[in-house]
Amino acid sequence: MVEATENPAPFPTISIEKELRKSYLDYAMSVIIGRALPDVRDGLKPVHRRVLFAMRELNNYYNRPFLKSARIVGDVIGKYHPHGDSAVYDTLVRMAQNFSMRYPLVNGQGNFGSVDGDPPAAMRYTEARMTRIDQELISDLDKETVDFIANYDNSLSEPLVFPARIPNLLINGAAGIAVGMATNIPPHNLREVIDGLIAMIEDPNITVSGLMEVITGPDFPTGAFICGRAGIREAYETGRGSLLLRSKSHVEKQKNGRESIIIDEIPYQQNKATLIERIAMLVKEKKIDSISEVRDESDRQGMRIVLELKKDENAEVVLNQLYKMTPLQRSYGIILLSIVNNRPEILNLRQILEHFILHRKTVVYRRTAYDLRKAEEKAHILEGLKIAITNLDEVVELIKASANPQEARDGLMARFGLSALQAQAILEMRLHRLTGLEREKIIEEYDALIKEISWLRSVLADETLVLKIIREEFEAIREQYGDDRRTEIIETPDEILPEDMIAREEMVVTVTHAGYIKRNPVDLYRAQRRGGKGIRGAGTTAEDFVSWMHVASTHDTLLFFTNKGRVFWRKVYELPQAGRLARGKAVVNLLDLGPEEKLAAILPVQSFEVPEGSECYVLMVTKKGVVKKTVLSEFSRPIRRGKIALTIREDDEILAAALTYGNNEILLLSREGMAVRFHESDIRPMGRSASGVRGINLPGADASADFAAEPEEAPPVTVNEVVGVTVLSGDPQSSILVVTENGFGKRTMVDAYRLIRRGGKGVIAIKASARNGAVVGMLQVVDDDQVMMITNRGKIIRTPMCDLRVIGRSTQGVRLFKLEENEQVVALDRLAEAVNGEDEDEADCEDPTVVNREAAPGAKDDDQGEAPGEG
Predict the structure, then answer these.
(1) What is the CATH number of domain 353-481?
(2) pTM score, whole prediction
(3) In terms of CB atoms within 10 Å, which of 308, 318, 653, 816 comes out highest?
(4) From 3.40.190.10, 3.40.50.80, 3.90.199.10, 3.10.20.90, which CATH number describes the 44-163 domain?
(5) Catalytic residue at 125?
(6) What is the pLDDT of residues 551-561, one digit of tens each?
(7) Residue 283 in contact with residue 289, Cβ under 8 Å?
(8) Domain 500-830, what fold?
(9) What are the φ/ψ torsions at residue 769 (nearest 5 degrees)?
(10) How far is CA 29 from CA 41, 162, 178, 249, in A?
(11) Average pLDDT over the chain, rounded to whole?
(12) 730-742 tens-digit pLDDT
């Protein structure tokens, strides 16, 4: 009998409060990290990841036979997830439901439930396998791209996260309730999310607003409508928000003259059977008395809930009642909560994409390092085989003379300086590899490996190449799995967008040489006769002057082209509206310009959407005569930092930009008065980063023969460059207005400029004499047009074109603007439409056939033909 110890060791005293706190925190973290919340990198909870990993280990791929669900569930709970089989099977079922997952991860065969809330069949009856898109989640898993951890009993290992080429967290969403927190991430369209990732790679500083240009909102598998964008923006910017979902329906006329409401799509996660039951209950209780019958006609072709209305009932009124009293309209709360570095965090849209791109960079780096190591090991072996082939006879004799393999291996190592691996590979090489063809294959394989090793090393050394690889993978995924949106975003009557508060009206946008921009209504500038002195349209300093002017609607988008070849986006109503005498706001406060960058051209665009079968291009012209056209849709996605519009030489600058439609003619005008007219087809469409082709040949010296004949008439020497660009409209009544810096100009019919190929020297448009000065610009006008001209002192005159008759091409022109001393015309533009309300002392337009001007000595009214040397 064992005697009891007299003084047993006492148990340690533990505070029950501390023990409960510690135990509860351990439990909470286990639920948060290990069960309820998805990882930001692959968008999966541990149970989802374990199910897919177990299916991979079973070779249960999309192109292999189905396996019983019970077999899969058994492997999951036996190897990786020691929990109840019902929880694992429920996970498997949800991943197979196309009404729960936007892009299902399991291909199910059998009864996996329905949108009516019907439960799935037992796991012993159903079968499953992976879907094709799963391969993008587990791709490169065997290349040491992610860390593995031991399973619950340390007998196997499982991945901590999947390499995940697809942004699964956003495209499939997630929902889960942890301890003290919950997540509810809606599904999105894969094509839009990939476009957002590519936009972030192009511009790492892109804002949430910029991302929302491509990721317009959630895209639910059940379709329906999202009402309003305010909740989407709030969720994307803060990580929390609320959406209003509304069913999609239409009204059909019955043979008896009555109407029926057909519900085609219902809000996400709404039970159809419960919804129909709720509608039937409201009808029975007389809360909705306009419906005579409710029936479900849904089939495998799609959803169809029919609500037959009583005679003379208004379908719109009934729908409003249903939206108010049934789940046909319901709210959906968004909480973008996920696990980041083993901690739960609420992220905005930009942060989610940032974490995913960072994960992809890590995967690509680790995959490249693995491939490099394997390639170097293989190249090392091939180097030995190459030496053996080169010294084949000697190697064979050495092996034959050796007493055993060890002696042969040592002899090869000593004789040829081989490693043990190389020597062993030579000994294990089969005899058929000694044939001439096999020897050539070894050499070719070795050379290819050397190139591959060089490429892999360059990838590891250059982050730009890594991002290029990631982008190419994204584009391939978008091409293979991308589809159209199912959920349509509509505006709600109570939602007011900025555009709704801005009246549509024509605005004059002016930019000064020093970079100040503003907008003012067109009617601020009253119409005047030709030859008037004008009114002040912009306040300027002695060092500044107005250099650009455009007329556009407040709802138009302005494309800002800089002299460095970049383009920026702004709505007209976003520009500052200042007084007539104010300078405006500095462009650098609106656009992210570089230190040596300044505004060069502005292009108003009403819409970036082009009807099917049509073409629309952005034509860009530089001062050195380079022209390029790019499809308009290339400029439809704004980036805060701007995009490259044209790769430009250091000594060149962008002059102008215009819209063309594939069949236009282009007219270019140089400062020395030479014009080239050519067809748009001479310019092939190019990408945004292309450099363009020559549009006009600009001689280094004066190109006009008249200047050589009359040297006293020549203007001061200036740098010859392109000053005017016009996309000809094809209107036979139109003419070309050319204006010089001394306030002279003229109108000439378009046909006077003969059509040639691009790149020529052109014909005389106006004589750039000492009287006229250098050419400022040109416009294509008709009699109904009114033109605004601006001087370097900020004065503006608005002149009807019916006051100016059409004259010859090679004439010197007439006075358009009375200038003061040291004052010059610097810019001109045409009003979008005529504006009434002219001054009472202004007479109506005179007969355009009457010439009323101050004629200079020697000025001619009629076309005198082409001057010598034109061509």
Answers:
(1) 1.10.268.10
(2) 0.59
(3) 816
(4) 3.90.199.10
(5) yes
(6) 778 778 888 88
(7) yes
(8) Neuraminidase (2.120.10)
(9) -85, 180
(10) 19, 21, 9, 45
(11) 83
(12) 778 888 899 988 8
